[in-house]
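Review box. Two proteins, two foldings.
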Amino acid sequence: MSDDRSPNESISADHGGADRSDVITLFPGQASDQAIGRVAVVGTYVPRKCGIATFTSDLVEQLGRYHGELEVDVHALVDANDPLEYDGVAREIVQDDAEGYRRAAQAINDSGADVVWLQHEYGIFGGECGEMVCDFVDRIAAPIILTLHTVLAEPGDKQREILAHLLSRAAQVMVMSEHSADLLARLYGTGRERLTVIPHGAPDRPFGRQDQFKAHLGLSDRPVLMTFGLLGPGKGIETVIEALPAIADHHPDVVYRIVGATHPNLVAEHGESYREGLQDLAAQLGVADRIEWVDRFLDTPELLDQLEACDIYLTPYPNLQQSTSGTLSYAVALGKAVVSTPYIHARELLSGGVGQLFEPGSSQAVAEAVNGLLDRPEALLAMQRRAYEKGRETIWPRFADAAASLVDKCLGEQRSVASRLFAAPGMGGFMGMCDDVGMIQHAIGTVPDRSHGYCLDDNARALILMNMTDRMEAREADRFAAMFASFVQHAFDPSQGKFRNFMAYDRTWSETCGSDDSNGRAIWALGHTASRGRTEDLRWWARGLFDQALAGFADIDSPRAVAFATLGAVGRLEGEKDHAGATAMLQRGGAMLHGLLEDSRRPDWAWFECVLGYDNPRLSQALIEAGRALDRPEWLASGLSSLRWIAEQQTSAQGNFRAVGSESFHQPHEVLPFDQQPLEAQAAVEAAMSAFDATQDRFWYGHATTAYRWFLGDNDRRVVLADLASGRCRDGITPRGANRNCGAESILAFQLAHYAVVALAHVQRAESSGEVIENQRLPRQPATHFR
């Protein structure tokens, strides 16, 4: 394999000095046999003539040979100007076609890929510095393993921007040298837990067969030197040619074999002028007859045969920043003595007498090194044996084991979700986020972050939770309910007829009027409490404030705010079926949402708006509930059809829930996978509960439990977000895994989703067994709290 990169596409020679003890280096014997899944490999691929294409091919071939439990699909990056026949690939991605990357990402998501393994080099993707790769990774839902074939010590601004973006998306990052890992940690702050060094793989062939392969090439009894790769000025071949006269003086039969075609880009711009210049130099020095030119690109088997025929392999590269050379790995594994400049890969691989290093551009040093080995056959043989022994660490079985282990690491620990599906969460984490004012909004990890104070949104949701919980002593739950009700009451500004939302930790309001959505959510909590509050006094309070707040809501027309208020009106009518204000709110909400859906619907986008936001299923849920309450079958049908559409968007090819990512917000007709937030899973559970209540269609029970399992680890990153013991929940899923913070919104989303899925399971079981349920509508709280 060749590794042909320009000097500007290599990594720094500075070793940095960072502690490497916590960077994982995978070698043979460390692989896991638990890595079972589907892997989508993206990169250039054979028959394309480039080093990364060969690497991608090797990766796929060796995983298939040694880890057949992995199903591997190849998505090949292709150059439209160089059409080739690709065999055995799942898809071709034209490197300069922006839309092609989008289609490919969707195809990969639809394929059910468990892991996407992306090969990165700036020059193989379209756009400035290959920037089209950024849009591609943004659309990938599965964990991404990023193999970096180039890490620049001094990247340009655009290059730095692109690599930083890729690193932000990668679940795991593979590099082939310790120095590259150091650079990523030092320059980009990449966490050591995400960095894995897997040395370049190499073939496993018997030692000492050069005489056999020399005879095949007609080179018996001749000392053979060799350099391989796409020819270009960065190879330093002129240095070896300049050393040949001194070598030939000592060893007249020596032959220097220069194997490989000229780089296609160089041919396109300058023809064969570089090769011709080297030939002219050899003629001038009188060593033209000591050089054998093999002017073509060799496939791997033939390359290995050619390598076996040499005694000394030379890599005279003047660029000392090169991090990877596949042929260097091959040569070492085949037991060849190597004479090389001290570029990064050579320094790491050839240490301990495995090879001999010389300063770039020094033909005298090349001649001395080569003659020193050829003059002393015992020294040459000893170096070859050391190289062969070193190569046992990187032979293909070991490389494949390390690669499979990395896939397994991305897949994460598979845990049994079924046994925990209906287990009740504790309340310790919830109570830990509360003080005598209310529920604190954010947390750093599990520690409440007082700097952001409180918000009405969370305290309104917390009030709903108190209406439902059976995990607290009654007296304690009553105290918390009164506290949250007090927060909601204090947030209301009678002069405006509206609520404020954000309160600083010093109990001062940070705004004069809260968002439309926070006002809608407050009305929702009040409607819920009006019929399900823990005490009659609390229900009486909620009815009064609901009526006041509903009057001030008349000029708010934000779709989500209207949906929230509509759900509040449903709750209000459960306790007072002829409440005029709640009925009018249902009429307004149903008509508005139905109209939005009719206006925005198109064949591939059955939604209320041209964009997706947060709490998406609430729009459908409100329309379903309004349709049922007011006997409007067309509203009910629209609510159900739109909910099924959003359910389809939020179900992966593997069948797990995939919450619409926050990066989709404000992106017309786009569904992006990250960041995924607990609020969306809760909304999916509760909207499915409304749909099941209306239809008894078991699809909705299945979707609700699928969405709830997202909290427990059935998600794109196989990460458990919810801790049943404490009742805490992480703030969501990023491309790299779980967001470690456990804020109020996330804790409440998990807790409320639990009660919804338990209530739904109770009714579903009763319906399946033919049991008559006194109230045909789904219970919205534990049976012990029915009033």
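Next protein.
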Amino acid sequence: MIVRLRGVLPSLLGAALGIAAMMPAVAWGTDQARGHAAEVDPRIGTGGDGHTFPGATVPFGMIQLSPDTAMPDFKHAYKWAAGYQYGDPTIMGFSHTHFSGSGHSDLGDVLVMPITGDVKLEPGDASKPGSGYRSRFSHDSEVVQAGYYAVTLSDYGVRAELTAGRRIGWHRYTFPANKPAHVLLDLRPSIYDYPGKVLWANLRVHPDGTVTGCRTTRGWAPGRELCFALRFSQPMTSRELYNREADVVYKGFAGPGNQPEDQQAQNGRALVGVFDFGALKQPLEVKVAISPVNEANAIANLDQDGAGWDFDARRTEATAAWNKALSVIDVAGTSTQRTGFYTSLYHAMLAPTLSMDVNGDYRGPDHQVHRADGFEFYSSWSMWDVYRAEEPLMVLLRPDLSTQFIHSLIAAQQASPFGILPVWAYQGLETWCMIGYHAVPVIADAYIKGVRGFDADKALAAMVASATYGPYGDLADYMKLGYVPIDKEVEAASKTLEYAYDDWSLAQMAKAMGKTAIATTFDQRAGSWRNAWDPKTGFMRAKLSNGQFREPFDPAFAGYGSDYTEGNAWQYSWYVPQDAAGLISAMGGDARFVSKLDQVFDAKVDPAQFKNVEDITGLIGWYAHGNEPSHHIAYLYDYAGAPWKTQQRLKQIMDSQYATRPDGLAGNDDLGQMSAWYVFTALGFYPVTPASDEYAIGRPFVPHAAIHLSNGHTFTVSAAPLDDAHPYVGAVTLNGKPLDRVYLHHAEILAGGELHFSMQAEPNKDWGKGDAARAAAMSRYGE
């Protein structure tokens, strides 16, 4: 997704030993003393368009402390959305906030850089060593682990180590002996940078040596304020604080006038601090807390969450946090399989992020300070992406966190000036990016699957408010006409389709709560997808206000201003997850539906035609795995009596779109969605329709997995023989009994037990073929 502004055991060991006996090349998990954190490789996705960061963080933590290789201007920022590109030769510093896998960028707050010798105040040119404070480095010197990052800055001979807590970033710098050591703090840079982005900043040194400051930026979320508090493990010998506004050397920006350097405080838009320590005989530790509210809260965060000086202990705690989080699933497989699986699970547990201070304060979409009452406030919501698999994965694995997430969504809605749920929000602020009101299915999916602990009536009211706010994405015309007219709103076909699904999910929750009138209203709206269906061309299309389809029509065309959001007709015409049977009927029945699905995957497509749509990547024919509208398509064969083709296409996708390399993601990870797709698919099932209790069955890509559920039960998935020579499902059993249908109920997983796949070389074209075997087999809306 690239976002644009607009107005998610004894018996077990015995089973594992049995598999190990049959498949000697397969290992069970990892050394239990090390835990699954040792299986994670955070470098995956840091090259190409994965947009992940390699630095230190903890599950859903507020801090993402990571190296930045570049913070280019907004015209060239796409590949540096996480601040780091694996192919870059230099590091300009370590900042404390990053998105994981986003298609847009911001953050990169509180940049810290350890340096030696002469001090340079500008980052310099990466192609000209010594031109600034940035340093060359080698990947051979990097150590990249879950919760820990280390690198040697070769221009300075400094070994930099990073780890993190929930609200604290911990640094340890080992400087060369007999060289003056300095730490530079730059409050100017920001990912997706441009001149004048920093509206105002302040920086000061307190009598006890604590350094604090805040800055306000006009970035992706305009008017965002972030504050920090920083302490050093050793006293400074001197310090200089600069306001560089008039120097004209930073991104071409000239300010109203330079101020003299100062040792106590500075205010302005281009602040730099340099802290001197002389020649050090032992490593220097630095700890940094952030706050979205004020400096006092940042200090309180530092005092409570960052007590003491013991970097190694904090690193051990970060590793333990990841081992605990990842232990929810034990996977057997080859080293490559386990690395792919646990790195995906790791990426799926990076967002949403904690966005609340230790006293409960957080900033809402109204830019005001609020205080959480009995819950933790989380933000970083890429809703258009994460509602599909990321948040359903959390419902399955961490329903306790889903409760906290829903509290956060309701709190954000109540603080919204427009009274609607988050669309694409971070640090509490709204960006209005992408389409749909997909916080609605996030809440509905959790409720339908039994997540409780929040006010359901308040949640439903928030959902209805979001679904009926007319100015948002031309919902007014959608409610009036049953579709979004293209002469009133761009990308109208996509909006019509996505609104219809969101409506259906709202209806499911209302129905489950006994709110019949609300359920009826939104169930009827859910059928609006038919208003985008053109039987003449066989594609979903946008209509004009007069009811006619817009002409001319080219199903291959994609781009802003088209009928579709980051896609074309080949990719979006399958988006009716709430009524697959109705879509199959509209397309002419099973055979024609399957034939057209085959055309999607088998088409000869020149990727160059999408050169102006950065996020359409990972192409297999028209199928674009690097972007979310395609993510459910391979599973649709299940609904048309051809699950063997789902199995075939899933292997095609897994083999070509994921790899355990820095460029191993075909597209943006999108705050965990790409990775959540991998986790579900590797387990053998996928939530095609969040807000139902059904998962479509595909085929597993690990030989054995044990999901340790929050209710104390364990659900295992096993497959044998699992290798390239046996890519198809021959038969499936659930708890030892034949399973002839191609879907699972959520309750069946929660009950514990075993799902076993017997794999074979040739497809079983009879398994799951009949109507009774299919999920959601009956159309809900007639013809």
